[in-house]
Design a protein that fits this description.
about 90 residues, mainly alpha
Amino acid sequence: MVKTGISEAVLTDREKGFYRKIRVDPVLGPTFAERVTNWELHLAKMVNFWSLIALMTATRLKVRFGLIPAQEHPSGARLSVEMSCKVV
């Protein structure tokens, strides 16, 4: 646990709750379902992404998954401004 009180366990709980809502949303659910085929891997990547931000674990994404977040989102992703406002 770092000084913020945020841990990977907290991030995991938040991401699971977030994606639980996304998956049943009538607009966002189908959009994510088209792109995410392995939800456990996706959740692990997202927890590690937020760990990078919140816990300043800069090397985790590269070491664990060999990824750069901006490269993970396809250029043809069909998320509109209206869709992104639903999750704020």
